[in-house]
Design brief:
- 24% of the residues lie in helices and 19% in strands.
- It is built from eight helices and eleven strands.
- With 301 residues, the protein is an alpha+beta fold.
Amino acid sequence: RYSRNRNKMKLSVREMATLVVILFGEMSSTFAFINNVGRIAYVVLTHRSPCTSRGAANDKNWFTDILRPFLPEAMDADALKEQENIRRMQYPEQYPATYEMNEISIDEDRSSREAQLVRPLLKKTQLESRPLKIIYDARKDGWSAASFHRCVDSCGAAVVLGKTKSGAYVGGYNPKGWASTGGARPSVAAFLFYEKFPLSKDGVVFQKLRKVGGGGLACSFDEPNYGIAFGPDALVINMQQPNPQVAKSKLGPYYEQGPDELSSILSSGREELVDLKILVGRYEKGEDIPYSGAVLDMTSG
């Protein structure tokens, strides 16, 4: 409460709390604290009381006027949309996967059938225009969790490409890769995919399935003795004996069911794989590989 020209102005509890937050919110230095005190005091003490009849219409927004020096300038709808588009371009994997298909052609893909297959899926990912390489081939490296992690750990974002006994391709995109650090590796940009039938004249056509319920448990297990797990149940290839090639899938809780409203990307929810490969980006020597180590998981509880 303060008085000026014998007129009293009262602050509500909410208004006082807001002023306190502003006052102490920038106390990273003594100067910031003193500066905030001075700015608030100047606006308050030079402002006419709303209790006076004269100028009351101008004073009805006096509290907003006090806060105005501390608030960002308002942006119109077009400016906000442009800012959002720029952010999406800079940080595409802070948003859910797009259904758009990548049309970028990479020369290095010509030598890899698998790279050509998955390239269209990588629109608006960190691997969109980066050359790919096969880092793990289960038929060559072994159907075991140990062999899997020996090949894939600390290689960054990865594409899982499996082929079932019935001849269909299934897989997923893990933006955070694996590192055998334990726990989960969250990402809202993760997705699954499956091959749609019948085949088109242009060859294999994939359908993406987005992560749902936030980014938590996108990759639910990053354990050195465990294989692949998109969510606890959406696509699991645990590589455990006696059936290391068996994959299981249940859609809905962690990954969407998609336009076909599937309950699983595998027939009967369970199938044996005859092929499994992991593709990652090619990086120059000394180049930083995003998410090649431990990642912070504050989403999985």
